[in-house]
Fold each of these.
Amino acid sequence: MARGDGVDPLSRAAAEAADAADPLAPYRERFAGAEERIYLDGNSLGRLPVATRDRLAAQTAEWGELLVGGWPAWIDAPTRTGDLIAGLIGAAPGEVIACDSTTMNLYKLVCAALDARGPGALVTDRANFPTDRYVLEGIAAQRALELRLFDGEPDAAALPCGRGDVVVLSHVDYRSGALADLGALQAAARARGATLVWDLSHSAGAIPVELGAAGAELAVGCTYKYLNAGPGAPAYLYVAARLQPELRSPIWGWFGQREQFAMERDYDPEPDIRRFLAGTPPILGLAAVEEGVRLTAEAGIAALHAKSVRLTELIIALHDEWLAPLGFAVAGPRDPARRGSHVALAHPAAWQITRAMIERAGVTPDFRGPDAVRLGVAPLYTRDVDVWDALDRLRALVERGEHEEFDAAPGRVT
Amino acid sequence: MARGDGVDPLSRAAAEAADAADPLAPYRERFAGAEERIYLDGNSLGRLPVATRDRLAAQTAEWGELLVGGWPAWIDAPTRTGDLIAGLIGAAPGEVIACDSTTMNLYKLVCAALDARGPGALVTDRANFPTDRYVLEGIAAQRALELRLFDGEPDAAALPCGRGDVVVLSHVDYRSGALADLGALQAAARARGATLVWDLSHSAGAIPVELGAAGAELAVGCTYKYLNAGPGAPAYLYVAARLQPELRSPIWGWFGQREQFAMERDYDPEPDIRRFLAGTPPILGLAAVEEGVRLTAEAGIAALHAKSVRLTELIIALHDEWLAPLGFAVAGPRDPARRGSHVALAHPAAWQITRAMIERAGVTPDFRGPDAVRLGVAPLYTRDVDVWDALDRLRALVERGEHEEFDAAPGRVT
């Protein structure tokens, strides 16, 4: 197939041309390390921004110099960083706070919703990310509530929930890459009297998220994927401003307390988003979040999403041309409007193929059971030629049967 | 008063001699930053070890280079770091894990104890650290349990608890510096059928803690004080090995799941201490904990404690000589066997005196309401001359009335 200009759109020359015209191309140089490897797992752990490396060194030195005198400057890091994140997910300043892990934040918000509006069933899709399911399973066990797991993708017309229920949905499915219809699902939950908590871990930073416009009430997300804040960096949570007075964290800690340092009082939570803090905030980790989010905001979600669509479309086009004949199938949406920033390619030997790509081809995808090679594009640093080269190498190694040298039993993967 | 060698034990010459003979003196050079200031607030936020500064830079670079391929090495950081901490608190390998904040960890252990052995009352002293009280207050509200606050120091002969109750006590009181009798209180709780959770935040790293020998069951603690892991660094929790099978965290997350990456299963927690993990561990923060704990272990708790006693004794001796006539009083134990590594000096103008010391005298103590100047000694880096100079400057500024130039209303302090 050739375009009007005579360039085959599936040729490496076309990928090179796309990179040359890419307004986001300069961002690739804003990352440090791992220059050689084609990294298609930024949807699991993002790369290291140069600004983050430098900021972490400066933040460490600042601790050493200011010691406890640094706290007046550090104490607002959760809200300051939260406000930056808010700008990426369609939230207003004061609606997001950076703290704890995604798991902890989900626990806090689900308990808060149940306490304010429950009791009711806890609802999610059976295919949702494990930690989301486990959190709900634990709360259901503790409170003797029904855990209602539904099959298939979330469907606004048939969302199985009612008054007092708390529903947890991922905006982008961690395996298939399916992008949920946030507005329709939010409206469906509201119409049924249920409270919906969004997990934005696999969308924020690459895909537009319009929490405010959708009337979303609660959300959580991680920062170590597209927000490039490093392994196990602090997560965030969102509580719509109108809900903040009525919702309380189940975990009462001194950073959620009004007039924190008047220590002789009963617990009386901050009136705002800070009531969802608990322990002392991790200042180094928050500095990394701040830098990663700032870089993302500078590039702009619209530009990032446009590039994400171009790259995932290229994966699918090359798949159809090169990989389908080798037994692969796209295990997710073909419509880019229904897709996040990764593509899952199913193949019976997905585990071995993933190992062979990592160990022989200099390409890092990841494996997601039972049978998918997951290819993520991080539009801040993934190039068109990276996608082209990765799929070219993938094709070549499967054609040569190189993956058959690897053990078929999946070991520990992340 | 003069010693047999003719040197006044309260003279600066005596302090210099003590430093010259100090086997821990070389450790002072293992810290970076803040050379000029006399820092007597390491009991709030410890200093920056050189090894930590270097390790954080290396850990950051490792993230950049290894990316998701770093996880096989990183995933054991919570247990590896926990095992190092175990060596400082009289626990066995496998009984401690580094994760989350002290507040979160306390929440997890109190809920776990209630689920396994409750319901019962939640018991603590009214003067316990605020976040400990708030956590209990929150759980009591959630579960409709009695919150029983008692006055005065914990007394083994009169510990107000019974079967099914959960008691939370600090090993060292954050204000008075009083050191609880861990063995006697643990035995008292056991005899009454209550479960005791220790907060080691103000003792670990400076004071011997013998959890195993005392038959202690549960404990939490922070790492940013005497363990020097930086502002908001990950905390830790201890669960005696024999209790691990029966106790479960209320927060079920994917890092507590057995066979974590077999994602298609119901929650089935790890059989060991890892069941108290929840979300993705903070790898940078844990690296700082590892370095701080390693440095502490290298110096050895016995040597650190001996020096801590020498320095707090010096504070009290100089107080008696210089400060008592100026209206100060020791607001804590005079018996070093009953004392942690800080001394609280009460004075009606404590707030202004603290500000004057920080802003005029180059000395950092801290203020603890309502009326105490808290002086902490961190035996890894505090010198005898630091104590001598700090109290000399304190005496001089109060004699001159310099503190009276400062506003009497306490503002935000940390």
Note: Chain B has a mean pLDDT of 95.
Amino acid sequence: MAKAKIFRLAQIVERFGGEIIGNPQTPISQVATLENASSQHVGFLSNKKYRKQLAETRAGAVILHAADGGLTRLPRILCNDPYLYFAKVSALFNPPIVGAAGVHKTAVIERGTKVPASASIGAGVYIGRAVKLGKGVVIGAGCCLGDKVEIGAGSRLHARVTVYPGCRLGQRTLVHSGAVIGADGFGIALDEDGWRKIPQTGGVLIGDDVEIGANTCIDRGALDDTVIENGVKLDNLIQIGHNVRVGAHTAIAGCTGIAGSTRIGKHCMIGGAANIVGHLDIADRVIIHAAAVVTKSIRKAGSYGGHPAEDSRNWSRHVASLRQLDLLRERVRDLEQRLSARENKN
Amino acid sequence: MAKAKIFRLAQIVERFGGEIIGNPQTPISQVATLENASSQHVGFLSNKKYRKQLAETRAGAVILHAADGGLTRLPRILCNDPYLYFAKVSALFNPPIVGAAGVHKTAVIERGTKVPASASIGAGVYIGRAVKLGKGVVIGAGCCLGDKVEIGAGSRLHARVTVYPGCRLGQRTLVHSGAVIGADGFGIALDEDGWRKIPQTGGVLIGDDVEIGANTCIDRGALDDTVIENGVKLDNLIQIGHNVRVGAHTAIAGCTGIAGSTRIGKHCMIGGAANIVGHLDIADRVIIHAAAVVTKSIRKAGSYGGHPAEDSRNWSRHVASLRQLDLLRERVRDLEQRLSARENKN
Amino acid sequence: MAKAKIFRLAQIVERFGGEIIGNPQTPISQVATLENASSQHVGFLSNKKYRKQLAETRAGAVILHAADGGLTRLPRILCNDPYLYFAKVSALFNPPIVGAAGVHKTAVIERGTKVPASASIGAGVYIGRAVKLGKGVVIGAGCCLGDKVEIGAGSRLHARVTVYPGCRLGQRTLVHSGAVIGADGFGIALDEDGWRKIPQTGGVLIGDDVEIGANTCIDRGALDDTVIENGVKLDNLIQIGHNVRVGAHTAIAGCTGIAGSTRIGKHCMIGGAANIVGHLDIADRVIIHAAAVVTKSIRKAGSYGGHPAEDSRNWSRHVASLRQLDLLRERVRDLEQRLSARENKN
């Protein structure tokens, strides 16, 4: 996808640090997996599982942890965190591809909305009234932005994103196709003849440098806003209920659901398909495992999993216990027989 | 979002009942949380957790349970169900915002479809042949309605909803962005050389006053219809399989999946991320907890949870037992030692 | 939905095999459920649960297993697999309904893309540059196809599907509304000041005869491709992470999530709402039950379920054990009392 721009290992190390072993003039035109790399590619090793591939790779160079420098004779860059280093090198070779600035002739833009000259508005886009668009925003084909929406400078919405009226996105946000930002929260009250809808009059406030995955939904608040702080990364098919707050730099994997009014701390990592019920508080730096069902607030940093969720080590122990119940039952049966034998003897 | 229309407490009580304590002429222009209310706002208390906020609120008036009338000196409305009362007051101050009637010039409407003068059809909408639209329907930007779809009077589809051919929605239904109504059910039969698709020739029949959340999917039936009865409320990212029937006034929270041919009773409440397998019967007034995995029919009203789901009290007891297994194992070890000691003694 | 084309039982058996009992000239115009069939319909029985309906059906004929031939006096076709037979008969009466070939005047097609005369491109479609479309492809209203996408002959995208740049779909694929193919995988690396995005430079490669459900997401690979092999069937609201490989003829039910780099074998069946963590290997012909949480590789064909997943029979036994823990605890208490009694006696 990228043009064959070439960097020498020396140029890469000049930008990102690390130590070169081997020819610093080795030319690199792209990143690749060890398995599929060819001579102008740089590969990386961050997971021991792939050591065998290092022995067989045809990469021109590799990025390794300082401790692994002896595992190959290839030209190599040694560093403290090969995965992060690779991320930086990949970004160097693969800048985002963005269409030319301008408004597609099929886009519809209502009165009171100004489009900066640097913005790119795709085919079939609908933008309501009084929308504020920052410099360089990219709005993909088929997106719908309601009245009074705000999108910060440098943000990009891929094709077919919906943003309901009044929702605000920060700078350099990236939103994938099918995401829905600002639909009504699930607010209903039981009346004699059925459910009565509670108008959802809050909005959605999304910080800077947030990424939102495909078909993910972030509901607007019932009264106050739903808030996604700076640097949060959301994967696909996530449900964020009304009035949830997700703390800065928290990452959440796909299919996770967070029910209304729950507050997630900063720097948390939440595994895929987790479920967090409503009105809870989750502390900073909490790790929640895939498919965990969180039913109580978590006050302390740490690692949690299971259904219902508890400290991960406890959950692992309880699962192990459950799987040995047969054995325990046999021991009880044995005790019963031995004790009965003694009772009968006397 | 609403204009500053003002109601006096006396006018509110005249509409919705309840008892005023304090000045009945107190002017109210909007609802708000106790935490963020200002002097022309009315707040409410329905959850003990927020009592402290009642002491500190700057609201002009509050809605309270009759028993809580002594907790504040603010002008207040006393009633039996503050949450429901608040729902009604909020609806008074926040009527839905709807664009002007008319068909946007970029909408495409096929032959044989008539649009009532009172309807609003947004930009980029596609409507197939022989579609029936009731009075006052609102079809948001980018929606796609297949041939022979029917949408009852007063219904609203937000931006980017898809309705497959032949599906029918009742009156006053509300559908959020990204919802897909009437895609093929997952009907496949195993043949020697792989799966063979079973044509999904049934439709989807949705009653009156139904709400459908963002990116929720309701599949068409294999032969007969999939049915969502009156007053059902569905949150976001829900999957309703083919030939499911959801009984009237049942509410289902986000990320829940209901597999094919299962029948859910009336007035049920189903928590988020629940999973209900296919071909089951769930009775009326059943409560299913978040993340429950329902693998058997439920014949009796009550509360169910867990994986696999069982009576909630049993599930809680079993979880508690599991967490005390260490203790039980120690008791067994102790018994073994004591018994061995006696056996060796004799 | 289908025109009243009529086939005689004899004509059906000529095409699909099986044995007729009763009048071979019985006219059939459509398939139906036993419950709702009328005299020109053919019903089928494949699930014992519906035997009672066979006694009461008004169908003109029925499809039965050879062993069930004596259960009715209606004209009938006997075969080895009534469900599969019904699938074939239903396909005969219900061929897909496809609009006329041609490009809708509101569709936008960029330079370098040629549309075959046999293709049908719907209203409001956006197709990027250098896209390759096979013969007879159908692209529904509102779809967005990025640059260099490839769609094989005979494939159909329903309304509002998104395909990111460079993704390739095989022949006769069927994609439902809201599906997103090729959004960025969830690739982030932790840096001192937050998460750093890893460019997702791989693509998505989808084989022939694949079906993809509504609002399902298949992420593009981080470096190499995400691969969906021939004949795979995916239900709605499924998440397929980057670099996953799904083996040929595997079927996956709705709401399931498969995390990055996991490889699923061929001919697997995966129940709804299952969660499979990343970097695992799942063997061929594995059956995974609904809501299973798979945390380890599965090397052997078989049936797996639970949280965390294990052999299904073990999981069932462990659930039963858990539910009898009260009883075990009572037995231990009884032992303690009996042993104490003896100890005190002596």
Note: Residues 325-345 of chain A form the longest helix (21 residues).
Amino acid sequence: MASDSYPFLGQHQSGIVTPAQDRLHFVALTVKTESLAELRSLFEDWTAAAQQLMAGQPVGEEKSLAAPPDDTGEALDLSASHLTLTFGLGRSLFVDSEGKDRFGLADRLPPALEDLPTMSGDMLEAAWTGGDLCIQACADDPQVAVHAIRNLVRIAAGRAVVAWSQLGFGRTSSTSSAQVTPRNLFGFKDGTANLKVEEPELLAKHVWASADNSAGNPAWMEGGSYCATRKIRMLIEPWDRAPLREQENIMGRTKKEGAPLSGGGEFDAPDFEMKGRGGPIIPVDSHVRLMHPAQNEGVQMLRRGYNYTDGSDGLGHLDAGLFFIAYVCDPRTHFVPLLRTMMKSDALSEYLRHVGSAVFAIPPGVSEEGDFIASGLFEGKI
Amino acid sequence: MASDSYPFLGQHQSGIVTPAQDRLHFVALTVKTESLAELRSLFEDWTAAAQQLMAGQPVGEEKSLAAPPDDTGEALDLSASHLTLTFGLGRSLFVDSEGKDRFGLADRLPPALEDLPTMSGDMLEAAWTGGDLCIQACADDPQVAVHAIRNLVRIAAGRAVVAWSQLGFGRTSSTSSAQVTPRNLFGFKDGTANLKVEEPELLAKHVWASADNSAGNPAWMEGGSYCATRKIRMLIEPWDRAPLREQENIMGRTKKEGAPLSGGGEFDAPDFEMKGRGGPIIPVDSHVRLMHPAQNEGVQMLRRGYNYTDGSDGLGHLDAGLFFIAYVCDPRTHFVPLLRTMMKSDALSEYLRHVGSAVFAIPPGVSEEGDFIASGLFEGKI
């Protein structure tokens, strides 16, 4: 096993509390097969390939010259690069848009896997929204992440195809206190107050799904999580024309240090009561205030987003923004309320366009050799 | 100056023979101003910013809270990351599509800066083709490259806007013999026989523009070069279904080692005469044979391309390929004939779609403090 690889086996899937790697390739897939057995075999095949990929090995086995190679080859000389792979299932895998039970799995649909309600300000495009399945690949080297997604997509042939895919070139969150806080494309440090792998009790409370909490999770989700993605285009040109004071008032933090406007350093707690000229020094519509657990019944998310640039918008500007990813124990309590507050009240929203959205159930990790991802979903069904 | 920075000043611009960095952001711009003075001031402003960016410093200067910051900030905590910036000028900057002399610079149009002839198999899209100006940013860290392009685009406000932009996540060429040969998205080593910085005589012959060769270069191009880009979508799904033998016959090299099919190791010369079953062992329509200098009157290019993934094609596949970049002394002799051969005869072309194309004149480097990029173009004109 390569020295820069993470183990595949574990209670939880990799890529959630793993220290956020710098590069991302995320794919959503549309399932084409109508066979439950084929759907299960897809997870079995993906599990075998994921173990090889995360260990830095080519997928499959060496074939003769007369056959197509099992591995596509572009990562042959590259290391494991701390690759993690995280697999998820969308609501549309269980019930289609007309409510039809696609695979006889509807009774195992997690109640928390609801479609997101429409938000004021949503500008969602079908090309970046939803998906029956998802795979998040994170790695130090983007070619390793792209290679993994490509080979997993290839393995899905005949059973699932690409719905959409997103590259991220720079992480915008830390998930370990050993990591430096990165910056988003507004130039601000992001995710300072993120949940961290060093806080297992908070993770148990806010990130991991369990069968005994109020989410009503089915047994197969025990030890899993929920992944919410938002593709958020950032209007960087008007932002770049805003005075520094306005930028800092919108964020509620200083740009250079990332310190709360109430003073101290990056990791000091914001003082939301402190008075400034004409109101609180951390404005009532600032991002840090509205998203803070203190304003949200103590709710926290594990954020794991990435900066993206997709070329140009055809109107003379760069098409750039944030591919937001959050892992939470229940999107209904831990994501929807925060998103609603943000889109409705946050001063930042003026500079954002939400163009994509998806929610996926993330099954637990594979704990034992021979088991496979989402195996509990199929138990007793086939 | 940061320890991982390259000097800005030099006979040639950076980013040509600099050892190819792993990540790319390339932008083509449309000039909006009609003023020669404003065009010149753009190059002056870009020159000042490029010096700061390459040194790992924020652009501009620190402003008060009441003003928009000069630097957008997302690279504040990042190193110089070996950033290089390479500026170029398209034919359309000199004469528009109706032949009109836009800035009174038509008499300084390099004869070598011709529009590429239409190629059989071209599937060019306007969204990836042409441009009045270009900037190539290469760096170890993609966020540093994106930050540079974004800030240079911002500086251009009122004078030029983005025509198109392309991210590349993995280099496909080495430009120094100290570098490992990377792989393209067909899984093959690419650029094994590329020109290298360690070969100054070959660079002088094939890459650098000079006023005394047959290209008829104007004086302002002395020490410059020409940059040709092609956005080449790779049909990875059918390729991945081709047997290894077919893949290797198309490339003319082995997949794992990158050795010519005639034997030896990666860096051994191919033996085009060696017989195999039913013909030469390196097939007549193989990529390595058709592109080899021995088949092209000794002509060589400095290739500097990048793998890209742009999401999905909307048809269930990943949209991925090669953003080809080559630097040559004269596109008429060093690029067009090879491109024509490749598109017409190369077995590889079955798996490629050329969707974008551009050629730019690359002025020489800035040798002295106080000078600016392309200054020679404006001399005596303003």
Note: Residues 23-107+115-367 of chain B form one domain.
